[in-house]
Amino acid sequence: MKVFVKIFVTGCLLAASPGCKQYLDVTPDNVATLNSAFSNANETQAYLFGCYANLQALADVRRNAGFTASGEILFPINMQDQTTLGGQGGDGGFNLMRGLQNSLNPLHNYWDGYNLGLRLWESIRMCNIFLENIHLPLDVQPYERTRWAAEAKFLKAYYHYWLLRMYGPIPIADKAIPINAPAEEVRQQQQSLDSCFSYVIRTLDEAIPGLPPAIQNAAAEAGRITATIALAVKAEVLATQASPLFNGNPDYVSFKDKQGRSLFPAEADPEKWRLAAEACKLAIDAAVAAGAKPYELRVQGNIVSMSDQTRQLLTLQGAFTDGWNPEQVWTLNPHYGWQYMSMPRVTADAASNVFAVYSNFSVPVSESEIFYTKNGVPITEDKTWDYANRYQLQTGDEAHRYYIKQDYTTVKGNFNREPRYYSSVSFDGATWFGSGNTDDNNPNYVNAVDGYASPPDRMRYNATGYWPKKLVHYQSVPGQNTVWHTYPWTFIRLSGLWLLYAECLNEADGPTAEVYSWIDKVREKAGLPGVLASWSQYSRNPSKPTTKEGLRQIIHQERRIELAFEGQAGWDLRRWKELQAVLSSPFQGWSVFNRTVAGYYQLSTVYQPLFGLRDYLFPIQEYDLITNPNLVQTPYW
């Protein structure tokens, strides 16, 4: 995508008029500009890439409630200036968990494009204009015309889906409303939830045949949509529609439009899970046919010494941080720019430069405890693991020397955990392969007690003593001469599709050998035994995988572990109606400003998250309800 300047200019021309500020009031008077935009192939392609612009912007995790409101990571600093909430500082989205959402000026406002939201209605209008004018340029080849139209249809479908997932029933903008349309035509009303989902699926189905199965010229086209991506998104959309939040949710059964028509389905339809399962299998088959496979470590840079254990951790981590690898089904171009928020200071050089590492992305203790023991079962269930004494102190030993610094004192809960724990989370005493040191025999490590993690300025600090290590590439070296090894953001990985398929199969038919097989593919990649083997041998509840309800819990936890910190958990927990339970307990961590071991390892509360029933869906800004009286407010707002 080499045309970002042209994208910006085109987008500004379409969106700059004052009328572009509110939903469907996008009535640009720049008709001559639109005519020139479709005068030839180059201008037309530039307009298409303008349609892509907000999709690329969605790769910024600050804009993604699946990341900022998941309970996986908290941003500890209380911002006193409420006018900047969600503003240019970029951290306002985390206030969704503080109970600061509101309908006057909503956080993550994607309806209007405020507070880290994007103007998705304008992007949808651009897609519609593109589809209405793609026939004009005479020098566009037929195969290009077909592909470009298919890309625009995908983008239009995905933008609708993003809004649908946030707000529930929404208006459907399938055509660009004429600039001279009467007010009542502009004032669109919400369609029923199932009608919205059907529209998204139908539009994806129209797009898929015109898309290439894979990108052939990555240097020129990386980030553009393929049929494989569209099939994976279709599977996700159908699974979302089948999930408890949207499938016969009793909390929304009385939600109606201004004409008294019900907007949510009154009863759950189990057939939706079956349709989602079929879509998952098609997506997996398409991905494999296009070359998708589990990630194999691509070693980069000079390696002094690497153990098998470290190689395994880098392989698990690299599936996400090694950009454009075969496990990544859908990856977007913008680079993850928050590594300095995600890592501890593990060298004196990093500690001496206060601007090199901020460490503010803090993982609550509760999130660190969703990861399994080394036996592949939850820490609350493993009959060989000392759950009751997990907060007692223990010294690093030879058996854990590639995970925990030998002879360093940390807590017992950091021992005998699964590989994904050590590849995803860092903590006081954890080894750190990288940050300029690739010698496994003498690695860097996290010395949080001595203050490298939490300096006394109370700004550039980690509030819990746990970091999302998964989000930091091992070749990144902060310090006086900082070098960040950036990587693109991945929306869908192959292992995530495996687990989504397992979930849909279990919801449709309950536990079967096929369900276990797809979960076990993920577990094998993570170095764990299969589900049945682990539970029968190590769990206090050995029959758990044999019931639909028990296996549902296992699949949900497996997805939260496998996709931790990837911007997925927040959306999963919403659609499962489990986010309120996750955010009901205080966010806790260690006493990070205490400089003694005994003092540091005292649990403290960072803050109590506030998330209620109304927060599952986002409010429409009250101003929009005034300007468009055909709209109804989101339930409970």
TrEMBL record:
<keyword id="KW-0472">Membrane</keyword>
<dbReference type="InterPro" id="IPR011990">
    <property type="entry name" value="TPR-like_helical_dom_sf"/>
</dbReference>
<protein>
    <submittedName>
        <fullName>Starch-binding protein</fullName>
    </submittedName>
</protein>
<dbReference type="InterPro" id="IPR012944">
    <property type="entry name" value="SusD_RagB_dom"/>
</dbReference>
<dbReference type="Pfam" id="PF07980">
    <property type="entry name" value="SusD_RagB"/>
</dbReference>
<keyword id="KW-0732">Signal</keyword>
<dbReference type="Pfam" id="PF14322">
    <property type="entry name" value="SusD-like_3"/>
</dbReference>
<comment type="similarity">
    <text>Belongs to the SusD family.</text>
</comment>
<feature type="domain" description="SusD-like N-terminal">
    <location>
        <begin position="121"/>
        <end position="215"/>
    </location>
</feature>
<keyword id="KW-0998">Cell outer membrane</keyword>
<dbReference type="InterPro" id="IPR033985">
    <property type="entry name" value="SusD-like_N"/>
</dbReference>
<dbReference type="GO" id="GO:0009279">
    <property type="term" value="C:cell outer membrane"/>
</dbReference>
<feature type="domain" description="RagB/SusD">
    <location>
        <begin position="357"/>
        <end position="637"/>
    </location>
</feature>
